[in-house]
């Protein structure tokens, strides 16, 4: 489908409307991009997907943001995805990108809401673990 423009109203879908589109013949999915969950009809792309069509059909008809992000798609893949955009999730509220929240001092979270503790505090946790281990050895041999 054509990309939406400022002149074209954005079609809105509920998750219930997306759910039936879960086959290789009719494959829609929801992926959060640019802060909002967008709906994509990727049926025409299934045979061209480098990971094979089965991976996409497995998450068809649902929010596939976590699966999409976990794979680590390239910027080219993200740009290519735009051509399959058919709308957005009805009532979805734009959210700040996780990277921006982390830059502002907040903790990073994945699309599923899991907190990433590896960022700036990674070395702190390593030093803390070493201190705890040294203290345990000290008291063990006292």
From TrEMBL:
What the entry lists under SUPFAM superfamilies is as follows: Cytochrome b5-like heme/steroid binding domain
Transmembrane spans: 122-139
Q: Where is this gene product found?
A: Membrane
Among InterPro entries, the record links this protein to: Cyt_B5-like_heme/steroid-bd, Cyt_B5-like_heme/steroid_sf, Cyt_B5_heme-BS, Cytochrome_b5
Q: List the GO terms this entry assigns under cellular component, sorted alphabetically.
A: membrane
Main subcellular location of this protein, as a coarse class: membrane
Protein name per Swiss-Prot or TrEMBL: Cytochrome b5 heme-binding domain-containing protein
Give the source lineage, highest ranks first.
Eukaryota, Sar, Stramenopiles, Oomycota, Peronosporomycetes
């Amino acid at each position: 489908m054509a990309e939406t423009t400022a002149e074209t109203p954005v079609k809105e879908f509920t998750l219930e409307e997306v759910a039936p589109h879960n086959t290789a013949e009719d494959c829609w999915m929801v992926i959060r991009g640019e802060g909002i969950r967008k709906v994509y009809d990727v049926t025409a792309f299934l045979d061209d997907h480098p990971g094979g069509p089965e991976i996409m059909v497995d998450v068809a008809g649902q929010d596939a943001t976590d699966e999409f992000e976990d794979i680590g798609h390239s910027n080219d893949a993200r740009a290519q995805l735009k051509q399959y955009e058919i709308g957005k999730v009805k009532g979805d509220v734009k959210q700040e990108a996780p990277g921006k929240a982390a830059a502002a001092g907040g903790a990073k979270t994945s699309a599923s809401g899991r907190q990433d503790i590896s960022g700036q505090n990674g070395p702190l946790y390593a030093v803390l673990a070493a201190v705890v281990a040294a203290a345990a050895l000290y008291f063990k041999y006292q």
